[in-house]
Predict the 3D structure of the following.
Amino acid sequence: MILVTGGAGFIGANFVLDWLKDPNAEGIINLDKLTYAGNLATLASVKNDSRHLFFQGEIGDRTLVARLLQEHQPRAIVNFAAESHVDRSIYGPTDFIDTNIVGTFNLLECARKYWGVLPDSEKRKFRFHHVSTDEVYGSLAPTAPAFTETHPYEPNSPYSASKAASDHLVRAWFHTYGFPVVTTNCSNNYGPYHFPEKLIPLVILNAINDKSLPIYGDGQQVRDWLYVGDHCSAIRAVLVNGELGQTYNIGGWNEKANIDVVRTICQILDELRPRVDGQSYAQQITFVTDRPGHDRRYAIDARKIERELGWRPAETFDTGIKKTVQWYLDNPIWVEGVVSGSYRDWLQKQYS
Ligand code: NAD
Ligand code: DAU
């Protein structure tokens, strides 16, 4: 088996669903706290799959994690669990420090203890895969080369600082204890089951609900977009062949300014679900106050993972964004389930 943490969130759940599509796949132990971002509805299709064992709990709960490791003897851990939204980290960093730093530390310690007493043959096979972000590298000037794995760490938000700290812990556990780790740093994901606090799902749902489409600042900030299924396939490639102690950058070669992303979504919606008044959804675009400390540009140089592991993304931004918009139009019940009272409170706080 493998142990996945945060497997009820956006990327973790996509990973679990993709993994279990293979009839020969090993089972998954899924440990998730079910914060506002965790959603069992996303996992409904594997509810009765005996290869999927779900446990609600925290990565920082050493007693629980030790018990799960002892009982299920996983040969790998993939750590997705995190607080992930930059805007929320600006309002309240505490949960980010608790989960992303202290939680990762506790998880590492439990895993190290478990690994330390495995028989040699199992010990050699074991790995701890830490899922991280390109935001740890900070912000790029417009013409600067994309982030490579050796780019200095320059995190600028409480979120990225907490992820950077967790990356450093993981690195140190390899160097100090020989604990078998691999870290991946990925660019912005998008796709099905994305919680609608993030730009792409927020814009799709606001558009069809006749609400404004909020663009922070001048909308010229650049992100490098990757379809979530491609992130999952990259993690699988690293799990199989990634070299221990290494980091791999994962990206989609899809740098886009935010305003262009939003205009593209409007064009797709204009075709798929035209507004009743015949106007474009682009009319709903509204420029709002910028995010404090907003990073200007991220871009990933993904040549190492391509060269060493033969991984490349399957989707272009054009194919991935069309699929994504269509998915949100086709899944109103899932959407209804996440647009709860607490989500509405967040929108009120952030955009009022
Ligand atoms: P998400 O917020 O959608 O999901 C996070 C999941 O972790 C939720 O299910 C939540 O309940 C769970 N969780 C939170 N605290 C926990 C704890 N203490 N113990 C156990 N579970 C806990 O996040 P996501 O977008 O799916 O991101 C997953 C990982 O990928 C994160 O580590 C994030 O930093 C990283 N990442 C995200 C992106 C992106 O674009 N979304 C890009 C690169 C890297
Ligand atoms: O780069 C990887 C990171 O991508 C991940 O590590 C994070 O977990 C993930 O949340 C994401 O961070 P961003 O801050 O880039 O994503 P977000 O969707 O929040 O914002 C994308 C861009 O859009 C960013 O420049 C801010 C802008 N934005 C966002 C929102 C929510 C807006 O202009 N308006 C908005 O309402």
Observations:
- The two ends are 46 Å apart (CA to CA).
- The chain has a mean pLDDT of 97.
- Residues 84-86, 133-135, 187-188, 198-199, 202, 214-216, 221, 223, 258, 291, 298 surround DAU (ligand 2) (CB under 6 Å).
